[in-house]
Amino acid sequence: MKTLFSTFMLSLFMLLGNIQNTIAQETEKQNYVVLTKKVQQLKPILLAAKELSKEDGKNFGNFEIIVCGKEIGNLTDLETMKPHLKEAKKVGANIVACGFSLKKFNVDPKKLPKKVEIIDNGILHNLKLQQKGYLSLGL
Fold first, then answer.
1. Domains along the chain?
2. Which residues, if any, are the signal sequence (predicted)?
């Protein structure tokens, strides 16, 4: 009788553990980060974000686009950035500028659109997001 009871309890705990894992997987958000050196890549990146948002549904989490490198000054072109910022807002993506690149290539952070966040080091930020489980792509 003890063996039967022990087997029943063990089976019950295993079943509850599987149910708990399934629920956790269903409610876990999928986060993404893309590191790019070219502002002209924002359009295809945002198209990808839009598609992933549709596919992931309610499990779509954060989507960060980090811009680094010598072309970072292109972020200050407000006419070019306007449609990208609009699409980013619609999709729920964040466009982030690498502060290290801004300094290195003498770009005035005050000339960036207000919606563009500045972080100290884009590569480090990318690596830290990967540590948190973000899926990452470097272009």
1. 29-138 (3.40.1260.10)
2. 1-24
Kindly report the pTM of this predicted structure. Answer: 0.78
What the block records as the tokens of 57 is 């549904």
Give DSSP secondary structure letters for 94-119. EEEEEHHHHHHTT--GGGS-TTSEEE
Residues in the chain: 139
Sign (positive or negative) of CA dihedral 72, 83, 118, 47: negative
Could you give the 3-state DSSP secondary structure of residue 66? strand
CA atoms of 71 and 58, how far apart (whole Å): 34
> What mean pLDDT is predicted for residues 2-13?
50
Give residue 9's pLDDT.
47
Residue 35 main-chain phi, psi, to 5 deg = -105, 120
103: tokens are: 């300094």
